[in-house]
Design brief:
This protein has about 70 residues and is mainly β. The protein contains one helix and seven strands; from the N terminus they run βββαββββ. The protein has a single domain, classed as Beta-grasp domain (Ubiquitin-like (UB roll), Roll), CATH 3.10.20.30.
């Protein structure tokens, strides 16, 4: 399947994957993340049950804090 991940075309095997699986494949391990699927926010507790399908737009952004 082909999706847009953080504004870049990415290819994954299969017809759909969960957000958790995509994060595992791409090694997104930061604690503070903002996830949006097709411009809708996704809660952390829903990562393992929310599926991403061919053509979807997924954004996984790392939050950075400092002062």
């Amino acid at each position: 399947m082909k999706i847009t991940l953080n504004n870049r075309e990415e290819y994954f095997e299969g017809d759909e994957l969960t957000i958790s699986r995509i994060m595992e494949i791409r090694s997104f391990k930061f604690k503070m993340l903002v996830v949006r699927l097709n411009d809708s926010p996704v809660r952390k507790e829903d990562y393992s049950v929310t599926t991403v399908k061919d053509g979807d737009d997924l954004k996984i952004l790392h939050l950075v804090s400092g002062g």
